Request: fold
Amino acid sequence: MKRAVAVFAIPLLACSSATGNSQADVTNVAYGSQPEGQPTAAIDTPTLSPFEATIVKQLRCTATPTAAIIVRDLLRKRQIKASGDGGDGILLFVPTGDMSFLGFPVVRMGGWQWDANYNAMAPFGRGPGTAPPQFFSITVLGHLSDVKAALDRNFVYEGKWVRDDSKPEETLGDGTVTKPQKRINGVEITDGDDDLAASPVSGAVTLKCERN
Reply:
């Protein structure tokens, strides 16, 4: 049976590496409130490791992702290294040892982030043209249905469009009535490896939070 690799763009999960370093300090990042339309009960998941809890918060996409902060912390601990893949200032990183998120082996992670002056934050850079959106992503090995179930258990939901009742309906020139919609932020789930991976891994799932 084909396995899916999941790439996650949101909070960090528990992981272990050859260095054996703790990942507690990556949790010192401020995050926003629960997204509109999502359950608010039991939002904290104390059974997660500090690493997993951080990634989960990223993937909930309740605030702008902080990929540079997370990546720099893991680079400092030598738990990840640059893979050489990426483009337009976006970089991908791979674990240097065993690393898991919600029980799924981590394949790679990536992202992009700017600072208060709209300059790329290290270790990311800038290519020509328009800057990439701010995002965090993580790819894991696992069946797509299993990954989605694990995310649901930790209150990580996919983004979606819903009717916006705060705005009036609009009538087009041909008489068609349209109902305004609004976006509820959430994780993007892709059945496959990261698009920027030079050598995609089969059976992967990619998770991503993109939000400015």
About this structure: The longest strand covers residues 104-112. The two ends are 38 Å apart (CA to CA). The mean pLDDT is 82. The helical segments are 50-60, 67-76, 144-153.
